[in-house]
Amino acid sequence: MSSTIESVLHENRHFPPSAEFAAKARVSGMEAYHALCRQAAEDYEGFWAGLARERLSWKRPFTQVLDESNAPFYSWFADGELNVSYNCLDRHLPELANKLAIIFESDNGTVTRVTYAELHRKVCQLANGLKSLGITKGDRVLVYMPMSIEAVVAMQACARIGAIHSVVFGGFSAKSVNERIIDAKARLVITANSGVRGGKIVALKDTVDEALAMGGCESVERVVVFKRVLHEDGPWTLGRDIWWHDLVAKQPEVCEPTWVLADDPLFILYTSGSTGKPKGVQHSSAGYLLGAVNSMLWTFDYKPDDVFWCTADVGWITGHTYVAYGPLAVGATQVIFEGVPTYPDAGRFWKMIEEHRVTTFYTAPTAIRSLIKLGGELPKQYNLSSLRLLGSVGEPINPEAWIWYHEVVGGGRCPIVDTWWQTETGGHMITPLPGAVATKPGSCTFPLPGIMADVVDEAGEPVELGKGGILVIKRPFPSQVRTLWGDPERFKKSYFPEEFNGKYYLAGDSANRDAEGYFWIMGRIDDVLNVSGHRLGTMEIESALVANPQVAEAAVVGRPDAIKGESVVAFVVLKGARPSGAEAKALVAELRDWVAKEIGAIAKPDDIRFGDNLPKTRSGKIMRRLLRAIAKGESITQDTSTLENPAILTQLQEAN
Ligand code: WTA
């Protein structure tokens, strides 16, 4: 990462929006952006209330705006009533019934299209099906689905009846599914018999079976199974498992939405934090949806004839906000893709952009970097002239990748919105408004109107421009996390620490503002890694390793990686003797698979090194900065005088 940061800090090229783009943009020019920011600063509540009235459809209008009486458990629009699925579907039907809502392309290239009227019908039927199984408002439903129209239908159907979904990324293991079911006490699981990615079958239902068999899942009454592929299915548990097509077959095509209060939870999404246990980030209905709509309009400058494509999986926050909710809430046509960017070859994204005439393309720097490596010239073979706007999300984008994205994919004419935000913020926070802000490669530029972001020191005092510090949001905003499911204390401690009087939202990132006030994100300040844009807790991987009977102790650190941003390096102390040669190699493979089973393949360490012990201070604290240096292959220049066992450094440097 340090080389990226170096190049980022010396980056000073400006890319203002073209006059043509700016002329048509919803927010055109810096004056218009500043005017919105001023409005928010002068009348904070009035600003948000105005947007919430204008951009959301309410069953019962709210009379309260921000309630800070139980800070930091902030409440927005508390007495208003609405339904998120109504906002995403029903309200468009008078005008957009026959507009395409989703263009779904499967792994093997089959394309399925659904209109708003058809999507509405599918959601209503599943919602009625869920009701027939006794699912009601407030119940938790775990969704473990491949990328598909049905994944969105499942989420929308939950929203329609006020059930709280907890989507788990299809790459997570049975153990992870099990833990999430237990934590949320899910009553129902929605899955598919399989998914297909890169030509390979992913047996989701088998994983759900395994998760349920691990115990502790007594809360689960039924498992709804979508038949995605025709193949011989695994065991069927009578009375528990039910095919999706059977469930919806005779259901009415209309389902009256269940009206919920603005702050009633829409979903829980588990994400990694600094401790071993993933946190169940709980989002509201109205505030979250407002964040999704605002960013569709501001960041993506949404236009009715756009074809929007966000490549994220619905298992992550990006797939929640910019696949399952945001595009539908504004009535957009969007592309959903089942597969992977490299199958059947590295031209897949570009081919799909050409075929579906995509106008707005939103992906992660990791994907961009790997596609540059696999075929930097490939985009030129496709007609990408439909594109008008590009987006980046999930991790810092290095200027080299930015410039390639801009030139080769965007033909030099499309603004790039580098969007900084988090699972906890629900929607974009710091990002260019493409018709206003001159972008700089590697900077997420300025906060959206109404987002009071700042960079402060340890005491919470703003730092001078040009000096790095801690990224905070100084005022509550509608789309922010409401609490951590079942753990309000951890919510307070994680995000509103005492150091800042419990007032500032602590993002967990460090940042720098340059002389012109542009924000540059420098990376996490906690023990969270960002591997291919995915959040992983070092403690989470350590706990997984230590759960192996052969492992006595483990420490995990990140190492800069040219493609993935960061890779996972684990230092492991075994209960038995330290292995070498072929034996060590075999154990490395075994432990990698072990982590994949405990968490998921995304968490597999890239490098595992065995030591007789770990570098510790005399008080027993593992010195991670030394491990980070060893992982990078750097010579150790840091002070090691407080180290209990200096000889271990040489051993770990030489290991494997
Ligand atoms: C990082 C993903 C730099 C950051 C939406 C944040 C970024 C974490 C950017 C959240 C960006 C996300 N530039 N860093 N544009 N976007 N991050 O919860 O460290 O999976 O705290 O949400 O990703 O990851 P999460």
From TrEMBL:
Catalysed conversion reaction: acetate + ATP + CoA = acetyl-CoA + AMP + diphosphate
Keywords: Acetylation, ATP-binding, Ligase, Magnesium, Metal-binding, Nucleotide-binding
Binding, CoA: 197-200, 318, 532
Residues covered by the AMP-dependent synthetase/ligase domain: 96-476
PTM (free text): Acetylated. Deacetylation by the SIR2-homolog deacetylase activates the enzyme.
Modified residues (N6-acetyllysine): 621
Residues binding ATP, per UniProt: 394-396, 418-423, 509, 524, 535
Lineage top rank: taxon: Bacteria
GO-annotated molecular function: acetate-CoA ligase activity; AMP binding; ATP binding; metal ion binding
A Gene Ontology cellular-component term: cytosol
Keyword check for Membrane: no
Binding-site residues, Mg(2+): 546, 551
EC numbers on record: 6.2.1.1
Ranges for domain AMP-binding enzyme C-terminal: 540-621
SUPFAM superfamilies to which the protein is assigned, alphabetical: Acetyl-CoA synthetase-like
Protein's UniProt keywords contain Cell membrane: no
UniProt domain Acetyl-coenzyme A synthetase N-terminal: residue ranges: 33-88
Top-level enzyme category: ligase
Alphabetical list of Pfam families matching this protein: ACAS_N (PF16177), AMP-binding (PF00501), AMP-binding_C (PF13193)
Chain's role: Catalyzes the conversion of acetate into acetyl-CoA (AcCoA), an essential intermediate at the junction of anabolic and catabolic pathways. AcsA undergoes a two-step reaction. In the first half reaction, AcsA combines acetate with ATP to form acetyl-adenylate (AcAMP) intermediate. In the second half reaction, it can then transfer the acetyl group from AcAMP to the sulfhydryl group of CoA, forming the product AcCoA.
PANTHER family documented for this protein: ACETYL-COENZYME A SYNTHETASE, ACETYL-COENZYME A SYNTHETASE 1
NCBIfam families found in the cross-reference section: Ac_CoA_lig_AcsA, PRK00174.1
Record-stated family: Belongs to the ATP-dependent AMP-binding enzyme family.
Protein name per Swiss-Prot or TrEMBL: Acetyl-coenzyme A synthetase
Organism: Fluviicoccus keumensis
